[in-house]
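Homework help board

Subject: predicted structure for assignment chain

Our instructor gave us this sequence and asked us to write out the predicted structure in token form, then describe one feature. I got the tokens but I'm not sure how to describe them. Can anyone check?
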Amino acid sequence: MDKIFYNMKKIFLNLIQRIREFISWLWNQEGSPSQRALGLGVGIFSGCFPFFGLQTLMGVFLAKIFRGNSIFAAVGTWISNPFTYVPLYYLNYRLGSSILNKDRNLVDFRHIATNELWSQGWYLSSRLIMGSVCMGLFAGVVGGLGLYFLLKKLSNKI
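My token output:
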């Protein structure tokens, strides 16, 4: 039994060490505080969209266009992960529905016929995309500004 706990402790401490090394590596990325913050902001913006597998590409592409840090953009897309998919996209859908001032209830999937599937798909996706844009802009600005002020504050102390 002690050997199991010893192995678990060793694995846990190894994980903590790797996380510290990753944060240190990330912290020492090149670029000004504004470039790194811009990269994180566009990454968070991209991570709010339901384009699974394309979020990182979208974030890095936007970081290149806006001259932000590509590594921070890729990390920013991690706002969307298997633990946050459902709450994030549900919130995005509800936000999009309220912005478009349409029926705020989810579609009743029991009454969808095959010929109605395409119209219902547009109904759902238009609200999800609208909510993703708004939530992405808000979260990206907040995340980017938060990192910018943190980097500025800590760079003055070093």
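Reply (TA_rk): Your tokens look well-formed. For the description, you could write something like this. The mean pLDDT is 84. That's the kind of observation they're looking for.
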